[in-house]
Amino acid sequence: MTNSMTGFGREVRIVDGTVISVEIRSVNQRFLDISLKLPQAFSMFEDKIKKNVQRYFSRGRIEVFISIEGKGFVKRDLQVDWNLFDQYITMFHTVQSRYDLADDVTIAMIPNLNEVLAVQETDQETDELKDAILVSVEKACQQVWDMRIKEGKVLKEDMVTRIEKIEKIINMLGERRETVIIEYRERIQNRIKSYTLEMLPDDSKIYHEIALLAEKGDITEEVTRLHSHLKQFSMTVDQEQVMGRKLEFILQEMLRETNTIGSKSNDSLISEWVVTLKTEMEKLKEQILNVE
Asked: How far, in Å, CA of 96 to CA of 101, rounded?
């Protein structure tokens, strides 16, 4: 299965007034790289979340953003500084006695003592909340996976079209090969004749040298290897496995053979086909960079 490395997923869940939002973005990268951002209070789940993400993806940069908002996971406790409170009460009674005040200390005065009373918030972790986070990550991963499959189908269609074009050009190179050898041999003979002004004897060693020169421009081996590489490329595209890096290697070998043909050729038509061939391969390379 040809999967793309580009995808996006978003899942939102509400648990006891707490909103859990998970966003996952996937882009192309040579290896698997998972970047996770989540509230500090839930950092203990980081390894578990990353392992869940690894079950879905083999290559690409996976960015996971988790936000948790609401009061559902915050516990509030009232903190009282009893020592300071005792000092306040003692001070009130002292002032009352010293100035002969009629009013006494009342409960209504307590909330105004900010230094005495304080509300402390602590993160509250529950199994239900933890499970909700992990389920949300799973749902978002599935969305990214589905998008990568959908885009992968488009990539495969484009690659198959380019493979067909490349195969036609390789076939033309193979058909042109024999003609080029004959034409090249005749050009060498005619050039020698123009310098010697006479026919060469049939047993001349020069004919042997001419044959060797012609063979140096022979592209038979390169064309054969191109056919083999292209067949392997097509078979790999049809397999249900992670294939991106393997396709990169095969295409690299195809480009190597194509460059060799270009350096050997003294034929304008073959040179033109080589340029077209390299153009199609470069476009193929751009698509492979997005394949998982």
From this structure: 5
pTM, entire model: 0.68
Amino acid at 111: P
CA 257 vs CA 83, 161, 274: distances in Å = 86, 21, 10
Report the DSSP pairing between strands 32-37 and 60-69: parallel
pLDDT (tens place) for every residue of the chain, 292 residues total: 789 999 999 999 988 788 999 999 999 998 999 999 988 878 888 999 999 999 999 999 999 999 988 765 556 666 777 787 778 778 777 877 776 766 665 665 666 666 666 655 555 556 778 888 999 999 999 999 999 999 999 999 999 999 999 999 999 998 887 777 777 667 766 766 676 655 555 556 666 665 666 666 678 889 999 999 999 999 999 887 789 999 999 999 999 999 999 888 778 888 899 999 999 999 999 999 999 8
